[in-house]
Design a protein that fits this description.
The complex is a heterotrimer of chains A (292), B (317) and C (552).
Chain A (H helix, E strand, L loop, with lengths): L6 H23 L1 H23 L31 H7 L1 H29 L1 H15 L3 H12 L3 H28 L2 H8 L4 H12 L1 H24 L11 H8 L9 H29 L1
Chain B lengths: L1 H27 L5 H6 L5 H11 L5 H13 L14 H35 L4 H15 L2 H15 L15 H36 L1 H8 L4 H28 L4 H6 L5 H11 L2 H29 L1 H7 L2
Helix pairs in contact in B: 1-13, 5-6, 5-8, 5-10, 5-12, 5-13, 6-8, 7-8, 8-10, 9-10, 10-13, 12-13, 13-14
Chain C lengths: L4 H8 L4 H12 L4 H10 L4 H10 L17 E7 L13 H7 L7 E3 L5 E3 L2 E6 L5 E6 L13 H12 L8 H4 L8 E5 L2 E5 L29 H4 L6 E7 L3 E6 L12 E7 L2 H9 L5 E2 L8 H4 L4 E6 L4 E6 L9 H10 L2 H8 L4 E3 L23 H10 L6 E8 L4 H12 L4 E8 L1 H5 L8 H4 L2 E6 L6 H5 L16 H12 L3 H18 L2 E2 L2 E3 L1 E6 L6 E2 L5 E2 L6
Parallel strand pairs in C: 1-10, 1-11, 15-16, 15-17
Antiparallel strand pairs in C: 2-3, 4-5, 5-7, 6-7, 8-9, 9-10, 11-20, 12-20, 13-17, 13-18, 14-19, 21-22
The chains are: A mainly alpha (292), B mainly alpha (317), C alpha+beta (552).
């Protein structure tokens, strides 16, 4: 922040800070938020320390004991190579919890920058970008991702980039709308009177004031990023073997369902479901706190 | 009115053209060897060169784009690399299949979603409201293939009530077709229920609060009749826009569900074309999905304007 | 065992020295019954003759499947969507091969037990050094348009395949073996092939093994996709790309008429829906059911599994020109880490045969079975690593394609080499990326330090010996370069006589065990699945399927 004497903004900032604290208190008392956050923390813990706490090596094969149903020794049974499904589900959170948040980060950064430019400058730049974004939004996310991955080849990095840039236009639209509203507020005019550069006005003046909606939008996108990564892995364009990733495990094993080997897919499915629902609960609670 | 329609149409063409560039570039970004991809690694290099020449993939990119776009404008979608046949029949056939699945999903989800939304609005703030809104929202973010797998497990493998594949036998009647499509349509219902219920709920709460609702009640209409006549009609409007915006998802975003249930919709067409690097097929299918979406949002706008008296009065005459 | 030498002498009369040498081998016990049948069929000896010889040495006659079946009915088959067009000259995948095999036939047919049976040729024989082969054609064979097949049709078909201008897919098989114009008509029912180099296994190049070599009419053959005219027991009814194909019985067929009235093939994008369709009774059989994907079928009481030997396998190459594999001892040490019986019984559910790190699968008659099988031996592997100065292990990236059980196999190798301190990082690519442009410098398949590649079935090991291992081989991922090896392969390919082939094979097997540029740890069976009660199906490891004598 600049230390230029600007009483208007300073007092506003104090009020905003109080408001933020109040919102945080509402949020922390929301049961939806607490349940969601607890589940997310559990999976983050598994991603960080899973390998140290699981009962068996998730990668070790045991060719004499493949496709064993759940038992005292193997809580969730074993897979085609005799690997312990429970340990794999626990460790399997790592890749998706790396890829999805990274993709969300990229989409938030790119989307926020794009939205700021479009909302602040308006005019022809906004018009062209809006048209391109509309064209892209005419396609389902998964199709855009598929197109891009076919062109670039599948790897963890390309998946992060592709999902990041696929989601960026959606965030850009949200940010643009927020900036358009914010633009009319007097502090922007004041900054412009001081002949501050466009970059300064956008990133120093406007950005902090639209940070809350961006954060909420980013949380919602995180849920969809997990959705998208899991789906891509399921159709073979996402995380690649031999990762114990959930979507990938389901993709390898769902053909076994008709043979009755349900444990090779059910637990991975429940894990994905629990994670996306948890992220969604948190996003929902944040949205409620923002609007109340 | 005509001017507005013309503007919308020009915008439609512009968006479609931008889309064609995006799609074309995406499939030609890397100079991959199409002939090699078609014939496989063990084919003789002479055969590969021959094929590339026949397919025209050894020509400059701009010439290929001009050719493709020129054909497309005249209704010729080009020939599939893999099939060496026009792609159009494949695309239309897959689109038809997707429409069938989407239709069944909508037939199921629209009444359910509206019912859920109305109930939530009537019991706003109470547990039922929370269950419907939070539950609906949670169901909407669970990937369809996950709910699909759980459904396959329960109804296909354990109870054996429904077939595991969505592809009905060729000579199947309507009822049999519905039976085959039921299982894959439920995950879509789960995804869309939350959206529709939420929009209906918002519209309903607003409508219940509005002047004409109060007037209606004063006129002595029974509450249930008033809800049916006035509030519901207003709550339908946002539902239509949800349906329109979700068309693109229903008609192209179902890659995972179509793969899981082995259904030949447009999503799986895009998926296989992507796997095989069959660019003409990929481009045509993606462009058709985009066009359908743009048309659907256009249609939704018109229906919206027609249904909503306020817009009709304000915007029209 | 009682030998009938008198009858044997009668049978031997008028046979060539090579043929008699084969019989000598059988009598002396150097060649077993199976190898005798297989190699005899390559030399063009008829099955009744081979059966007769076996009878004289007390090894019984050929089993005959004589069942009375009521004609009629429809057989429904599931297969993967053909990847490309159905021009016999261009097909290269299972879907295309299976579909074509309903209408098309070859000069000879590689049976499920890997013996060559005469089909459109009645007999064949080489000259003394194996450079010229003469084929006698079957008389009275009718095409689906009613015309009679003659030498002109065969010459036109084969020359079309061998001509580089046509971009035929058979070019890679024919290169260095048969050139355009080298096929000549002698009379209406005799065709002569003059080879580029001696080749003792040439009939395989004209058999169903070289799946492009479907005999088509000279005139209409160039436009097969418009008319589908060939000689098979079924004729074309309809074909809808990506959906299916239908065929009806051809009443003018030269052999026993087909039992079922019609054949219907339905195409599927993947193996899973085929399995569901079979379990749901929508189809009667699946031709290719990869083990790992079809575990659900193995214990289904309504399904019968047909397995047959195949020489399809996964090659694990180690680049001999790059660290850490420059030292042959390191490559041998890695080979010693693998528990092959566990691979075959666990991962492959018993549907594979153990390999001995050379292309010589046990099913090839020329394979020297006396070469000791390599077995897991961690102590020896550790010694080798120490001797190579790599006691502390090594790090390497193993690249492979996402196909069949390859990712799983890669994981097992990764785990196995941990025992000698090997740290493998896995990189699994989609098939298109893995093969790239299929030329060095633009293909992870040919450039990676260590990789796993799937190789389909071949009736003779010639291609496996040359392309991936010879110094001039175009698929030499291991960058193996050994003049001794090249010489041995040349003499193996030229050898007409089974025992001469086996002598070269033995040396090749021992050399490859010593050098180990490529791991061949198993050869996987081909697995088909049918409804219980369907008999008479003849599938081949190459992807053809004969259904004309099949019925419930």
């Amino acid at each position: 922040m600049s230390d230029a004497p600007l009483p208007l903004v300073a007092s506003d900032g104090g009020a905003a800070a109080r408001e933020r604290r109040e919102r945080l208190r509402v949020l922390l008392r929301s049961p939806t938020f607490l349940v969601g956050a607890a589940i997310i923390l559990f999976w983050v813990f598994c991603a960080l320390f899973g390998e140290a706490v699981v009962p068996l090596d998730p990668y070790a094969d045991d060719m004499m004991n493949y496709l064993m149903p759940p038992s005292a020794e193997h809580w969730f049974g074993t897979d085609q190579l005799g690997r312990d499904v429970f340990s794999r589900v626990i460790v399997g959170s790592r890749d998706i919890l790396t890829v999805a948040p990274l993709a969300t980060l990229i989409s938030t950064l790119a989307g926020a920058a794009l939205g700021l430019v479009m909302g602040y400058y308006r005019g022809w730049a906004d018009e062209i970008l809006s048209r391109v974004i509309d064209a892209m939004l005419a396609l389902p996310t998964i199709v855009i991702a598929l197109l891009a991955l076919v062109a670039l080849g599948t790897s963890t990095i390309t998946v992060v980039l592709v999902i990041g840039f696929t989601f960026a236009p959606i965030i850009a639209k949200t940010v643009r709308a927020a900036v358009l509203a914010e633009r009319e507020v007097e502090y922007v005019a004041a900054a412009e009177l001081r002949r501050e550069s466009g970059l300064y006005v956008m990133f120093i003046e406007i950005l902090p004031n639209v940070a809350a909606p961006i954060l909420v939008e980013a949380t919602i996108r995180l849920g969809y990023a997990i959705f998208a990564v899991a789906t891509l892995s399921f159709i073979g364009f996402g995380i690649q073997p031999p990762s114990p990733d959930w979507g990938l495990s389901i993709s390898t094993n769902y053909g076994l369902l008709t043979g009755g080997y349900w444990w090779t897919v059910l637990f991975d499915s429940l894990a994905i479901a629990s994670l996306v629902v948890a992220v969604n609960l948190v996003a929902d609670a944040m949205q409620a706190a923002l609007h109340d | 009115m005509l001017k507005v329609a013309l503007r919308r149409f020009l915008l439609f063409v512009l968006t479609l053209w931008l889309l064609s560039i995006i799609v074309f570039l995406a499939s030609h970004v890397l100079p991959g060897n199409v002939g090699r991809a078609m014939l496989g690694p063990f084919a003789d290099p002479r055969a590969v060169d021959q094929l590339n020449h026949e397919l025209g993939t050894d020509r400059p990119l701009l010439a290929q784009y001009a050719d493709w776009l020129g054909g497309f404008v005249q209704g010729d979608m080009g020939d599939s690399f893999a099939m060496r046949q026009p792609v159009a029949p494949f695309v239309w056939n897959a689109l038809g299949n997707s429409l069938r699945l989407a239709l069944l999903a909508l037939v199921l989800v629209v009444p359910l979603g509206i019912l859920g939304g109305v109930l939530a609005a009537l019991f706003v703030g109470r547990p039922l409201d929370r269950v419907i809104t939070v539950g609906g929202l949670s169901a909407a973010v669970v990937p369809e293939f996950i709910s699909g797998i759980v459904l396959i497990l329960i109804f296909g493998v354990w109870l054996k009530w429904l077939p595991l594949s969505a592809a009905a036998p060729a000579d199947a009647g309507l009822l049999v077709q519905i039976k085959y499509l039921l299982l894959p349509s439920i995950p879509l219902v789960l995804v869309l229920f939350g959206y529709i219920a939420r929009m209906t709920r918002a519209g309903m709460i607003e409508a219940l609060d509005s002047d004409y609702m109060r007037t209606a009640m004063l006129k002595g209409l029974k509450r249930s009749t008033a809800i049916r006549r006035h509030a519901l009609r207003n709550a339908l409007l946002p539902t239509i826009s949800v349906v329109a915006t979700q068309t693109v998802y229903l008609l192209g975003g179902l890659v995972a569900i179509e793969v899981l249930f082995h259904y030949r919709g447009i999503g799986s067409l895009i998926y296989t074309a992507a796997q095989k690097k069959d660019f003409p097929m990929l481009q045509a299918a993606v462009l058709v999905v985009g066009a359908v979406f743009i048309l659907a949002s256009l249609a939704a706008d018109l229906i919206y304007a027609w249904l909503n008296p306020r817009i009709r009065l304000g915007g029209g005459e | 065992m009682k030998f009938d030498f008198k009858r044997l002498d009668l049978l031997r009369r008028g046979r060539s020295p090579i043929e008699n040498h084969l019989i000598d081998g059988l009598v002396a016990g150097r060649i077993d019954r199976r190898s005798f049948l297989r190699h005899g069929s390559v030399l063009g000896l008829s099955l009744p003759f081979l059966g007769g010889v076996l009878g004289t040495v007390g090894m019984g006659t050929m089993p005959r499947a004589a069942r009375a079946a009521v004609p009629g009915g429809v057989l429904r088959m599931a297969q993967t969507v053909p990847a490309a067009t159905l021009d016999p000259m261009k097909i290269a995948d299972g879907g295309g091969i299976t579909t074509l095999s309903q209408v098309g036939e070859y000069l000879c047919f590689d049976m499920p037990n890997l013996t060559l049976a005469p089909q459109l040729a009645e007999s064949w024989s080489p000259n003394k050094d194996g450079t010229v082969w003469t084929f006698k054609l079957r008389q009275g064979v009718k095409f689906h348009n009613g015309a009679t097949m003659t030498a002109d049709d065969v010459v036109a078909t084969i020359n079309r395949l061998a001509d580089p201008a046509n971009g035929s897919n058979a070019l890679s098989a024919f290169s260095g073996v048969l050139s355009a114009g080298a096929t000549r008509k002698i009379d209406d029912y005799t065709v002569e092939f003059t080879l580029d180099a001696p080749n003792g296994n040439f009939p395989y190049y004209l058999s169903s093994d070289n799946y492009n070599a479907v005999i088509l009419p000279a005139k209409e053959g160039a436009e097969f996709e418009k008319n589908w005219i060939a000689t098979g027991p079924y004729k074309y009814e309809s074909y809808t790309p990506q959906v299916g194909a239908k065929f009806t019985r051809f009443d003018g067929y030269w052999g026993p008429k087909a039992i079922a009235d019609r054949i219907e093939i339905s195409y599927y994008n993947d193996i899973q829906p085929q399995i569901l369709a079979l379990q749901g009774g929508e189809v009667d059989l699946i031709l290719q059911a990869p083990v790992l994907q079809s575990v659900a079928l193995l214990n289904d009481p309504n399904i019968q599994i047909l397995t047959g030997p195949s020489t399809a396998h996964e090659q694990v190459h180690m680049r001999v020109d790059m660290d850490p594999f420059k030292d042959a001892r390191v490559r041998r040490a890695i080979a010693l880490c693998l528990d092959r019986p566990a691979l075959v019984n666990g991962m492959m559910k018993g549907k594979a045969a153990i390999g001995n790190d050379s292309p010589f699968a046990a099913v090839y008659p020329s394979t020297d079975q006396s070469v000791p099988q390599r077995e897991k031996n961690i102590a020896e592997a550790k010694q080798l690593m120490e001797a190579a100065g790599m006691k502390d292990g090594f790090e390497v990236t193993l690249t492979t394609e996402d196909y069949l059980e390859l990712p799983e196999y890669a994981v097992l190798i990764q785990n196995a080499v941990k025992q000698i301190g090997g740290k493998i990082t896995l990189q699994v690519l989609d098939q298109g990326t893995y093969y790239g442009d299929a030329v060095p410098g633009k293909s992870p398949w040919l450039d990676s330090t260590m990789g796993i590649t799937d190789y389909g079935h071949r009736g003779v090991p010639n291609v496996f010996l040359a392309a991936p291992l010879a110094s001039t081989g175009t698929w030499n991922s291991a960058h193996f370069n050994n003049p001794t090896y090249d010489g041995l392969v040349a003499s193996y390919i030229a050898a007409l006589d089974l025992e001469a082939q086996r002598a070269s094979a033995s040396q090749i097997q021992k050399l490859l065990l010593e050098e180990t540029p490529v791991l061949f740890s198993y050869f996987y069976d081909f697995v088909s699945a049918t409804k219980v009660g369907l008999n008479g199906v003849i599938p081949t490891a190459m992807g053809q399927i004969r259904l004309d004598q099949a019925s419930f």
